[in-house]
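User: Last request for today: this protein with uric acid, please.
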Amino acid sequence: MTVQPSPSRPGRPVLLGQNQYGKAENRVVRITRDGDTHHIKDLNVSVALSGDMDDVHHCGSNANVLPTDTTKNTVYAFAKEHGIASAEQFGIHLARHFVTSQEPIHRARIRVEEYSWERIEHHGRGAHSFVRANQETRLAQITYDGTSWEVVSGLKDLVVMNSTDSEFHGFVKDKYTTLPEAHDRILATQVSARWRFNWTDDAQQAPDWETSYAETRRHMLEAFAETYSLSLQQTLYEMGARIVEHRDEIDEVRFSLPNKHHFLVDLEPFGLKNDNEVYFAADRPYGLIEATVLREGRPQLIPADLTNL
Ligand SMILES: O=c1[nH]c(=O)c2[nH]c(=O)[nH]c2[nH]1
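Assistant: Here's the final one, the structure of the complex with uric acid:
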């Protein structure tokens, strides 16, 4: 079958809208060999480029198109040439390269997921054995338009629980309300969080991305543990506020927190008293509590729906 080119005809009542392209989910594992001691960075890197791409859509001219295959190769070559100091730094290198080396490309967005590996402590030779840490996935999104940077970092699937110091009562009751007031409940959630840096231009000193991540995660967890919670909303706010107060480089934090309900099991039929000891961990439905916490005077730029960021 012959495919006819589809030229953009003047007068055609059709316009090309937002578009981007690139290679998604490049899985790259970089080993740094420090004698017998090895270090691992394990990333999933997605490249999305945009710019003067009207012609490829209108008439199939590829004259401005750097192949997605090349963007994949660049990820692997950069892992060798520049190493991977952090997800953010790696994304910055890539974004800068695509925008500055290709005239038609005006904007690059690099998304990174990072999987962490912990060293297996053992008595054998070398330090090259790891166990995949089954905790959160670290996230970074770097966007560059040739002038300014937007760096949003984050994490997903960080599961936390407080087995007490959580209450929920005094809520609105209507004719459909059956929820009993809780004065001592489990509070558990699977944290999905994104935070935006106020580093936007090369003239500013960039944050130390690794320290920033570790400290932000620590503040988030400490706030979760230390807040006596009257609602998951209040806990969320404290987690965000703690980050904004302690990390000068961060202006905005957004959370999506599923309330992982734990219901007390009725043991009366068995003649047993359930003294807040035996729970049924429900997986669905779940309350979903989402909010942004901002530094005063700074804009809210992280989108409400975190599923695609
Ligand atoms: O922390 C909570 N916030 C709510 O808004 C809510 N709603 C609900 O049924 N349980 C809870 N818990």
